Amino acid sequence: MKALGFLTLTFLAGSLRLFPAPVQDSDKIVIAHRGASGYLPEHTLPAKAMAHAMGADYIEQDLVLSADGVPVVLHDTQIDTVTDVSARFPGRARQDGRFYAIDFTLAELKRLSITERVDPKTRAPVFERRFPPGKSSFQIATLEEELQLIQGLNKSTGKTVGIYPEIKRPAWHRREGQDISRIVVEILRQYGYRTKEDKVYIQCFDAEELRRLRDELAWGGRLVQLLGDKGEECADHPRLMTPPGLRELARVVDGIGPSLRHVATGTSAPDARITDLVRDAHAAGLEVHPYTARADELPPYAPSIEDLLDMVLFRAGADGIFTDHPDRAAAFVLDKLRKQTP
Fold first, then answer.
1. Is 75 a catalytic residue?
2. Residue 36: domain span
């Protein structure tokens, strides 16, 4: 990192707390995964405001479309695991029993309440120790509402926290009659995000869509190829994680977003092993931003989230990390760098 930042005094949830500001132009970036989702329901505006105050360098936006073509900030095309849609609109499920954002207008989506994520079958909370499901009041946000919030907080706090939108299932959206990438890029440009100098990354699992963003849609900002193991978009990802595949990606994208398991493995702390992926990606000129560090869902080789952050960011050498707990990640990175500074 080029600077050690400063502490911002902020008032949150009725208590006065000190949170580190983002370390601008840093070599290690903290990306708030769905906002401060370890503390508040994911992708709600309060979760994004909390992440901003906690020192995140970038805040993530997963994007799907409503029936009337408005990008809304939700992790999945289905909405029944994070909203009360089944109670509000009981007859609107598809044949698979799931409810889809694209089947509802924005006005209808705004009638729903967001809750902490639950299992679609058991309705039990996915993370038992997080914000209690059904408590307080949270609403689905549009992309524009979130951009206005982040840019407003940047102005009022003097920070320059960036955005990190993910275009979800673009081929599926086109089969549903909607071009999500074109709509999202137009909105980003309206809000001043256009080039690689702007604090924005667009991420997607679909490699062909990333090529389309760069070529057909003339997106001039940074692109990140997400890498995973499941789904039609990930069929070619094992090849893309090889040195030749990474060099191929580097002709289109600026970075990769692999799962943590692609960066480090092991059944215990003594058994921990770093893979070659970060080294190979850097050799191809790509940044690496793995997902997702959670204090309450650690891999077996990491006794704490701090141990995990140390392994991924400093031992493996990743350039940034997605985390549900941006306060702990930002504090760890700053502390690590203070100790390294003469």
1. yes
2. 28-77+140-340
